[in-house]
Design goal:
This protein is an alpha/beta fold and 299 residues long. 35% of the residues lie in helices and 13% in strands. It has nine helices and nine strands. The strands form two sheets. It has a seven-stranded parallel beta sheet, sandwiched between helices. A two-stranded antiparallel sheet has the order 1-2. The longest helix has 22 residues. The chain is globular, with a radius of gyration of 18 Å.
Length: 299
Amino acid sequence: MTYPIYPYLGWEQHYTNIPIVAPPQHQNRHPGFEYLMKPRPISENPTYLGSGKLRNKVAIVTGGDSGIGRAVAIAFAKEGADLVIPYLNEHRDAAETKQIINNLGRHCLPLAVDLRNEESCHHVVEATINTFGRLNILVNNHGVQFHQKSIMDITKKQLMNTFQTNIISFFDMTKAVLPHLSAGSSIINTTSDTAFSGSSFMIDYTAAKGAVVSFTRSLSLSLADQRIRVNAVAPGPIWTPLIPSAFTAEEVETFGTEVPMKRPGQPFELAPVYVLLASDDSSYISGQILFVNGGSIVT
């Protein structure tokens, strides 16, 4: 198969010969290693120039070692923030992200932890305060995804793992950070447009992501009096390590081509939305779900 290419309009001098779809590939682990992906996801838009929107802020971006989390961490650093990036065990990916952020002149604290354990969530926050002395932004972004043809194939172990990772740990991280947040702080949750459209082969994943939507809306109401804003981003098909770890090699070959733009998104294409929600530019936005999904209309 010949893999067609496309330019990012206006950025042809930076991005050429980027495949619309990826070659067949699969990783037998969750959530996957970014450094093994072909082609590598694009985490940074080199033409993006920060303007100090997050100057001297401190942000925790869970799953910040790779994928969407890495792109968000890089954009936050360009806007002047220091980063804490909890991750599971993707040490090489995390080291790369740390180096990029350091090269941008900001500090990055990678923490290898299992956020399915509530104690780990408190450890992350304690390390953040001990290192930086403050905390302004929480991005709950980590997640897992497993494909099953039928609900009958979803074991109780898989179900509990999906919910423990994709929503319960969001509760635990939020409870751990709240004593350290003040008026003007921001919490951003990563959900999915499948929470609205559904998916026949990701029933547990879509159910957990639906819970993230309701969690976001309810938490925003709960924290409104404290002037802490809570929003969520709902990505469509994005080329991240979740994909080769969850999809078969054959499914990867057509991943993302079902959306109107006929291609998967790159992580850097979501990052400005997180910057918006983290900054004072969104001071009157809370309880909202912003879609970045290649043009799909979701209701």
